[in-house]
Amino acid sequence: MSRADKFTPENKKQELYSDFLNNFDQNPVTGFLARVTNEESVKQSIKNIILTSVGERFYDSNKGSKIKQSLFDIFDPSNIEIIKIQAREAIEVYEPRAIIQDIRFNPDLDRNAYYMTIIYSVINIPDNVFNLTLNILRVR
User: Taking the domain 18-22+32-137, which CATH number applies?
Assistant: First the structure.
């Protein structure tokens, strides 16, 4: 049995940021759209920016990154650095809540894919460092 004062202002985690889930699921209790909050919200936003190609969005055609197009380029250190710069710039422009600490790449030559790890912190949660690992594959 839970206590009545479990979610008092002293015990409830403060929500700094919130976004809807990408698949627009409903909260089973309230029936409203389910949300992600704080660091999960920023993580979802970074993932959307990296996996969106430039020109894919109708009303903001500059939003996104050119990482999927670079899967057809030669895997060498200079191209990997260019991809890191493009990813960092896209995140800095379109996700001001995140402070990028590091971006790491592990190319998989056999599958023509990148394993990208983004290490970041959130502006209003400066003590914690978070990471997001993405597997970027060629679709066709």
Answer: 3.10.450.40
Please check the confidence at residue 16 and state whether its pLDDT lies above 80. no
Residue 2 has what pLDDT? Answer: 52
Q: What is the mean pLDDT of the chain?
A: 81
The two tokens of residue 103 are: 């971006």
- End-to-end CA separation in angstroms for the chain: 52
29-53 burial, b for 16+ CB within 10 Å, e for fewer? eeeeeeebebbebbbbbbebbbebe
pTM equals 0.79
Q: What is the DSSP letter of 40?
A: H
